[in-house]
Write a structure and sequence with these properties.
The structure holds two protein chains of two kinds.
Chain A: H1 2-44, H2 52-62, H3 67-91, H4 98-136, H5 139-145, H6 150-189, H7 191-194, H8 197-204, H9 207-233, H10 238-270
Chain B: E1 14-25, E2 28-39, E3 43-47, H1 54-61, E4 69-74, E5 77-78, H2 84-91, E6 94-97, H3 109-120, H4 125-138, H5 154-165, E7 172-176, H6 184-201, E8 204-208, H7 212-218, E9 221-226, E10 229-235, H8 236-244, H9 251-261, H10 267-273, H11 277-286
Parallel strand pairs in B: 3-8, 3-9, 6-7, 7-8
Antiparallel strand pairs in B: 1-2, 1-4, 4-5, 9-10
Helix pairs in contact in B: 3-4, 3-5, 4-5, 8-9
Chain lengths: ~270, ~290
């Protein structure tokens, strides 16, 4: 009897989690739909104004301010990749291939994904904290009571800014990984690796390696900002709720980023992109 | 449908009409069949203890939460039946002062007041600037236009919030606990502002508060909520009579009197004390 009870509890637990997941995904989808609707209304209806200034503010906050940390982290990724690959490749006398591998790994995946993880902590958490604090301070209610849509006013600038900035940051990130690898070759690995490093990388890479990376970067940007806005706007119960929202934003963002990356990789592999 | 109290007007001069409003949270009724009408131009004060549902009632009236049963009408239109556009149209006709002021912290005081004007009118920037100056002068904050919300005191935040609330010249103003957390002088200043705005602009005011001094100084009519039910709606003079009278043994009158006077003895206290202490103890012991 008791084992049956436990099994029942477990199924109930699983069901509740699954249901919670669907509700969450549904909420996100609704928010995305509302944001897209506002963007189109803003573009095509003269009565609905989208604030360019708000968008620019968010781009500075999300993008410009995180350039330094993205550069630093991605340089390190380049260093790590080069040093990790050197010993096994040298056993096959293939150290020169480090440039090719860093190119593929960096441009296709590591550039966008590591940037997205950095941004989820850097921008996602701060967006969630900001919106959460606004909920607590009744600012969201004040917006609605003033007949201003929080989606148009707050969500759209953040999602669009994060989407665009994520793509631009990914371009910087791709190059920083390449440069990190080059510096390492120059300082540690020797001329067999660094001579013709960028030429080999260029020959190896095709446009679609670059493009698929940026497509993913854009999707990661939307995921991060959407999760951050969603978590922020559904804050309940004061400072504790805000803290929870920031934590959950980072956790869910990273899960979402890596899950999306996995799906993308499978799709790209199947269609040989 | 339950009956409306006799002293309520049924004419067209009611700008807000709350009918049989029921709101439940987790199965518990926070508002339990509330009826209320607010007449054009009057100042109605809604009173009640903490958790009696008065803030919830206010949030229904501004269309920020929706009733489980019953309806809320503003300007004769059922809020629940309106689409987003219709609702926004109504929202432009009222202003609300939130408990904390609810200024947008990323904007200056002036920008806060300018926001509704920028978004909802076609006025040019110069005209908006003039309007902002006028509104800020009305609440005595003209000098603070360029300051950020984080740089000003709680009382100033409320006044700035009020300036924003009147930016679009609303027909109704809602106040959520306007004197909460303010010193007596600032609180009296806010009360005076509410009275002035009501007289100068002729707006209908709905004030939710549990500060009795403030309530009696601003109200035309008063409404007393208790445990999600409307105990009494009457002109201020009737409530003054109850407050100044002697206990009569009438449970409702005594309850209102205790609240108005802030006495530590009376029906409210008795109710709190008699909520099954022994049962709770026995249950706790039995549950072990």
């Amino acid at each position: 009897m008791s084992t049956e009870g436990k099994g029942h509890d477990f199924v109930e637990f699983l069901g509740a989690k699954l249901l919670g997941g669907f509700v969450y995904a549904g909420g996100m989808a609704l928010l995305l739909g509302a944001a897209i609707n506002e963007v189109f209304r803003g573009l095509f209806s003269p009565k609905v104004r989208l604030s360019g200034r708000a968008m620019a503010d968010q781009m500075v906050r999300v993008g410009v301010r995180s350039v330094g940390i993205v550069v630093l982290v991605q340089l390190f990724i380049g260093v790590i990749l080069a040093l990790q690959m050197a010993p096994p490749l040298s056993t096959f006398k293939q150290e020169a291939m480090i440039a090719n591998i860093i190119g593929i790994a960096g441009f296709r995946m590591l550039g966008p994904i590591i940037t997205a993880v950095v941004l989820s902590g850097f921008a996602g958490a701060s967006i969630a904290a900001e919106l959460g604090t606004m909920v607590v301070a009744e600012e969201i209610e004040a917006l609605e009571a003033t007949a201003l849509s929080p989606v148009r006013f707050l969500v759209v600038p953040r999602v669009v800014a994060t989407f665009l900035m994520m793509i631009l940051l990914a371009i910087i990130a791709d190059w920083m990984i390449a440069v990190g690898g080059y510096i390492t070759s120059r300082v540690v690995l020797g001329p067999g690796v660094y001579e013709g490093y960028f030429e080999r990388m260029r020959d190896q890479l095709r446009y679609r390696d670059f493009i698929t990376g940026l497509v993913q970067a854009g999707v990661f940007g939307i995921l991060i900002s959407l999760i951050a806005c969603y978590e922020g706007l559904k804050v309940k119960g004061g400072a504790e709720g805000v803290g929870r929202a920031t934590t959950m934003t980072v956790v869910y963002s990273i899960v979402a980023i890596i899950s999306a990356a996995c799906v993308f990789t499978v799709v790209f592999y199947v269609f040989d992109w | 449908m339950s009956e409306l109290p006799d002293n309520l007007p049924r004419g067209d001069d009611a700008v807000i009409r709350v009918v049989d409003l029921v709101k439940r949270y987790d199965g518990r009724a926070v508002l339990d069949g509330v009826n209320l009408e607010v007449r054009r131009g009057e100042t109605l004060v809604i009173m009640g203890g903490s958790g009696c549902g008065k803030s919830t009632l206010l949030r229904h009236m501004i269309g920020s939460i929706w009733p489980d049963e019953g309806r809320v009408e503003l300007f004769g239109q059922d809020l629940g039946a309106l689409d987003q556009e219709g609702l926004d149209g109504i929202r432009k006709r009222f202003g609300i002062l939130f408990q904390s002021g609810a200024l947008f912290n990323s904007m200056t005081v002036g920008e806060n007041v300018a926001l509704p004007l920028k978004e909802h009118t076609d006025l040019d920037d110069d005209t908006i600037q003039i309007m902002v100056t006028i509104k800020l002068e009305l609440v005595g904050l003209r000098q603070a236009a360029d300051r950020m919300p984080s740089e000003i005191s709680g009382g100033m935040k409320k006044r700035a919030g009020l300036a924003r609330a009147i930016a679009l010249d609303p027909e109704i103003l809602f106040y959520d606990e306007p004197s909460a957390g303010l010193d007596p002088v600032t609180s009296a200043e806010i009360d005076q502002l509410i009275i002035d705005l009501s007289r100068k602009l002729g707006v209908t005011s709905v004030v939710v508060t549990h500060e009795m001094d403030s309530a009696f100084s601003i109200a035309d009519r008063m409404a007393m909520l208790d445990k999600g039910r409307m105990l009494k709606i009457a002109p201020r003079s009737e409530f003054e009579q109850i407050r100044d009278g002697e206990p009569t043994g009438d449970e409702m009158g005594d309850l209102i009197r205790q609240f108005l006077r802030g006495d530590s003895h009376g029906p409210i206290t008795r109710r709190r004390l008699s909520t099954g202490y022994e049962e709770d103890i026995l249950e706790a012991a039995g549950g072990r």
